[in-house]
Amino acid sequence: MSAIRPTPVAATGGIDWARVRADFPLLAREIHGKPLVYLDSANTGQKPEAVIAAVDEFYRRHNANVSRAVHTLGEEATTAYEASRDKLARHLNVRRDELVFTSGTTLAINLVAYSYALPRLKPGDAILLTRMEHHANIVPWQLVAERTGARIKVAEITPEGELDLDAMHAAMTPEVKILGVTHVSNVLGTVNPVREICREARRRGIVSVVDGSQAVPHRAVDITAIGCDFYAFTGHKMCGPTGTGALWARREHLETMPPFLGGGEMIREVRFDGTVFNDPPHKFEAGTPNIAGFIGLGAAVDYLATLGMANVDAREQELLAHATEAMAKIDGLRIIGTAKEKAAVISFLLEGAHAHDLATLLDLEGVAVRSGHHCAHPLMQFYGVPATCRASLAFYNTHEEIERFVAALGKVRRLLV
Fold first, then answer.
1. Catalytic residue status for 375
2. Which of 11, 115, 241, 275 could make an S-S bridge to 296, C-beta 3.0–4.6 Å?
3. Which is the catalytic residue, given 228, 239, 375, 389?
4. pLDDT tens digits for 226-267?
5. What angle do CA 391, 306, 241 make, to 5 degrees?
6. Binning pLDDT at 50, 70 and 90, where does residue 195 land?
7. Membrane spanning segments where (predicted)?
8. Does residue 240 contact residue 302 with C-beta atoms inside 8 Å?
């Protein structure tokens, strides 16, 4: 299939980010008569023309089911679909047969919880989670704990929003069998030292599950180097279509885990007296997948690879520094999460304004931020707040947008004071 390539242009030794921004058609919109300032990429990333074109071309020229037909369209669809698995595997430095396609991180973690953990946990065992986990890395473990008699332990954080690593290592006691940890906090932007954490867990015989939803879209991720047992991530946050994502798992786990879902594609042979399952990763991919979505995700990987993840990370750190410095000058504004190493996520509150009201007033100025608990109730409880506003940046944002955002915050503050 053909693909539209991004249009970065060398400019004084770097990337012309204005040209890159032009690849994203939605960013040209106006909201309430004002230019859109999209600061909600931690919620979902915008899609470049290359991704939109790949999905469109599939439906226009190649639409067929995968792995079920020998006709030309079926072979084209299967080739393109599996090519996306190859691209992701190279992008993350893993084997393709260890990469299970899912609808996103939530399904991926549930797959681990029910297929790996449920048959193994017993009363007296423990699951160690961090205070900063997304609900998707809390609720599945609670459900499995209820069914097995295991219990949840919590690794706490500092007021700055960093993991207390000494306390965390001390909590890795013999009854802990599974550790769930986010690579990057979706609320605080904290980048956790997952390589060190997973090394310590492995030394103690604890299986590690890393939520990479907020890491893979914004920085180079080498899963093999991290040394975890499972790594989950979501496609729609990395410029891909919704309903896409994957679970990486060590091959020895995939070999011993039973299927999570049953149906077509995950089988080799079915008889009424038993079924022979397909090899991993297909053993865990029941039913017709989101074919067009994963082809679009492959195009998103191509796009990000062309930019270079080191360039993406550097650009976002530059924007983060600008936004943090400018926001710190606003009277009555409180930034929550000041870790030394952060991704481009800023949670904040403005004195005298509820987070939802603040987000609504910002929207009237064309600024899109998220408000609420961000699927992280335990973290809100730690900071003693019901909700925050969150501005999350991406490489396609601009310094001018940050200035418009800060100006909008100032206008809202004057309205509320």
1. yes
2. 241
3. 375
4. 999 999 999 999 999 999 999 999 999 999 999 999 988 888
5. 55
6. very high
7. none
8. no
